[in-house]
């Protein structure tokens, strides 16, 4: 009985810490108790949630599995376990957890949507469509199912059918905000921007608090260069389920003074986003008593040498005490309220000179004194929602390497299919102008030093373009027809990085035309 009472006390104290935003404190309370009482489902599940909110996703996934083993019939726990496995990149396990939750949920359509999302990430769109159509046959007047069908059809590139599915959903439920919102996204993807904004306006007339409509309207305005409206709506990203604010209390968004206070700026999205928006951090130094920038550990050494006056820490160390916090991508809004310029380029990042000399000695000699040495990155994070549009399989990229240049891979990770394609490519005589230094790229300081020895970089939309652009290296960015909002439309340059030029794929085409044109220019020495 005493042990049970002790556990109740620990759970109560951990819940108090959790509600106060002290997720690390909740973990510290729960971990020893959960270890001492491995059969206590309450402790196991509480620790799983605390680890998740503390950002320890790998540990959280393992702990959720322990909790699920103790509570295999808890649909909510299974659903949240699936969500953590999804965030941690464990797609197959996420799918298994979501399916188990769905079986227990009496056909909860939101859980069906989770299953469909994972199937699409696994590039199993046809399986997703079969699942949805089978369910729809049993409930043909379920508006939400028509909406989910539209999502799948969109992923399969069947835009006309996608649009019809959303319209079918709205006929059955005119107030289905998600369908109105996705009609806006579809219109944006088709460059029908007035229609897109009209659909978002319609969605928000139904539900002014709908985060998906707000966030997508933000991205549309940012794409169109309407930054004042865009940054304001972009704050709704914290409510759309894709991100969780990791610190308690309202963030600083430019209101009030920071004099004498310690401001924590925290990275929130991908590595490229952190590089891109770190430019704003130096503007905070004169405003606050101290500025701490918390970023991905692999970026900390590089940014530490490039941001004087800022304490840069990795996300692998404890967070020091602070007074206020602000997400990194909220800085354009916050600083605009302080009268800052919209495009503060700041000082470029700098590669470590000693590391650059080490890389100069490691790289193969050039084919000739005048032969260009070009960095190459053809894929990014495989878990990115738009990966299928922005990454290029190596087999499709390979003809570019016929150009008389020495190519150096500057992406750290190469997918197994691409490694196999590279080995196949190398079996052809003369295919010896690609160097793979990937194991030596321990962090972005190493990649920056490698890039310092290159004449230029060719890359898809991944962290590579941000690093090369921030280093001031001439760079060609290969973009899909509908790019991420930051690259805007109908331009070959970008105000984010003066050294970067943009090459865009046309709608409905593959990469062959863009790559062939680029190869011809390289062959001509341009």
TrEMBL record:
UniProt keyword Transferase present: yes
Entry's Gene Ontology BP terms: protein O-linked glycosylation
Pfam families (UniProt xref): Glyco_transf_9 (PF01075), TPR_1 (PF00515), TPR_16 (PF13432)
Tree of life domain: Bacteria
GO molecular function term, any single one: protein O-acetylglucosaminyltransferase activity
InterPro entries named among the record's database cross-references: Glyco_trans_9, OGT, TPR-like_helical_dom_sf, TPR_rpt
Ranges of the TPR repeats in the UniProt entry: 41-74, 75-108, 177-210
Keyword match Transferase: yes
Keywords of the record: TPR repeat, Transferase
Protein name: Glycosyltransferase
Organism field: Achromobacter aloeverae
